[in-house]
Design brief:
Blueprint lengths: L10 H5 L7 H5 L7 H9 L2 E7 L5 E7 L6 E2 L4 E5 L8 H9 L1 E7 L6 E11 L2 H5 L11 E12 L2 H5 L17 H9 L7 H19 L3
Antiparallel strand pairs: 1-2, 1-5, 3-4, 4-7, 5-6, 6-7
């Protein structure tokens, strides 16, 4: 496997390449969910969950839902329902092994994000799982997070990536063809066409999203 040259291997050397962060940036981190954090999470429809296994294998998984699908229990704890997915259980397995998590919350149309770091567990507490049934079917489990750090992340990355600007989005014809990519991933070329793969994906999306609805 090819390696990189001219790498930085010491934290002090890394800092020599960058200006010092502003006082605001240094002071903005909090060790709990204050009113602003709770409001942000209550309006968020999408969160990225970063985990790693005991062996150090990394994963970032997305979770989405209606505004407030992540529930704040108190100023130290929040819970994320495990709704229908691909059942690889990458995040859940990593949490069981490692118990650490990093979260990145997004609100549609807002450039700033909310970062939350802390310890995590997989909970099957009936009271917690039942708290989601007004909006979704009862989840099999939920990710419980005890917050160690929370802070607002600036909007520069979102603005550079024009994430919320439809005028800058690629046309349908120029977007990646997911069906073709999956066929290559799975090594099943010749057995299924890209259109068939895409149609199968859409059907699975419909079925899983329908299964998320409350009974």
């Amino acid at each position: 496997m090819a390696s990189f040259e001219h790498t930085i291997t010491e934290a002090a050397h890394l800092r020599n390449h960058y200006r010092d962060p502003s006082q605001l940036v240094q002071n903005k981190s909090t060790d709990h969910l204050d009113v602003g954090c709770c409001e942000f999470i209550g309006r968020s429809t999408f969160v990225l969950i970063g985990t790693s296994s005991a062996a150090g294998d990394e994963d970032v998984s997305p979770k989405g839902g209606h505004p407030g699908f992540v529930k704040v229990l108190d100023d130290q704890r929040l819970v994320i329902p495990d709704l229908n997915g691909n059942n690889r259980l990458d995040s859940l397995q990593n949490i069981v092994e490692n118990g650490r998590v990093g979260l990145l919350f997004l609100v549609p149309g807002l450039g700033e994000m909310l970062r939350v770091n802390g310890s995590a567990c997989v909970t099957v507490d009936p009271e917690i799982l039942d708290s989601f049934t007004a909006e979704y079917r009862r989840p099999t489990s939920a990710i419980g997070v005890t917050v160690n750090e929370a802070y607002i992340h600036c909007a520069k990355a979102i603005r550079r990536g024009v994430l919320w600007n439809p005028d800058e989005w690629p046309t349908e014809a120029s977007r990646p063809q997911v069906g073709e990519i999956l066929i290559e991933h799975a090594g099943i070329g010749g057995h299924i066409t890209a259109n068939e793969m895409s149609a199968g994906l859409e059907e699975s999306y419909r079925n899983d999203l329908d299964a998320d609805r409350p009974t």
